[in-house]
Amino acid sequence: MPEPAVLPPSATARTGRASAAVLAPALALALLPALLAAPARAEETGAPSVRCQVTDPRLAELSGLVDVGERMLAIPDGGDQVSVAVLDGGCQVVDVTTAPLDPYDPEDLGVGADGTVWLADTGDNNATRATVALIALRPDGGTALYRLTYPDGPHDAEALLVAPDGTPYIVTKEVLGASHVYRPAAPLVDGGTVALADVGTVTFTLTGTPGGPVGRAGQLLVTGGAVARDGSRIALRTYTDAYVWPLAGSDVPAALAGEPVRVALPDAPQGEAVSFTADGGALLVAGEGLPGDVTLVPVPAETAAPATPASTAAGPSGLLDGGDDGTPPLAAGLLAAAVATLLVWLAGRLRWRRSPDQPPAA
């Protein structure tokens, strides 16, 4: 009799236990960066205030926002053509600029010092895209499509930083909090494909700030980026917090290697967009859903936070502070590992249960 495809119960049980034994330590190691690092220091700022509410159905999935003074630019997540909405101070759409390009998954928006509007068509939830793209809408009305490839395979990315010298940086969205920073490795070619270079990593940690659609994991997922109009600061946001760094010149990787100031954001169902105000004194944040608040969040005048001494970077306060549900970050990580182990064990148990038409083991 041929050997059955499903192992006998005893062998499968051993396989399930072995898989669980291997997976649990591996998962725990993968979680260590987010669990053991102390979160960036949260600064006390003025109370956030709602500037206005977006109600236009074309922006129900708002994912990118830039404040340009008396107007704001916004893009939706999706659509079958490039579309940039122009909003007035009351969040009403007063104009829409389009381009004859069909984006795959546009996620963020930036404006260069020369007035070029950049769209990051970099969304890739399933990590299957061979290329991602940057789309440039120039002040003279021209458009350009620049395709890009990652050096290490596909990534999902929702944050774009356009440096004062015009260099675009893409920051990935990583479930364990270690986001990679990429920039083009060669001059961009309209209609062509250029490789990206990995120029740094930014590690995010659990903060306990509530918000977002995915629970505490949202505290680690980067959903947007911004560069101040005067080029003095940059920001990244997650579903729950914003991080602000001082920027010297156009050296974005060096800035991101420093210690940021963290600003807890108002609880929102799916916050994705972030922009500095035109004067650079505050952040504007927004997200998906209608009506959607565009909220003004003050940031400290002193952006740079003092470096955390190495002896206390992973001290008890960083490990034991409770999150939004009162569970310490370390305990939450260990619980996740335990749940994963249980799921593997259950999968092993289910695999050996024969279907009605399966022959018994020889």
Automatic annotation (TrEMBL):
Keywords: Membrane, Signal, Transmembrane, Transmembrane helix
Regions that span the bilayer: 330-348
Signal peptide start and end residues: 1-42
Entry-linked SUPFAM superfamilies: Calcium-dependent phosphotriesterase
Record carries keyword Membrane: yes
Protein name listed in UniProt: Uncharacterized protein
Source species of the chain: Geodermatophilus nigrescens
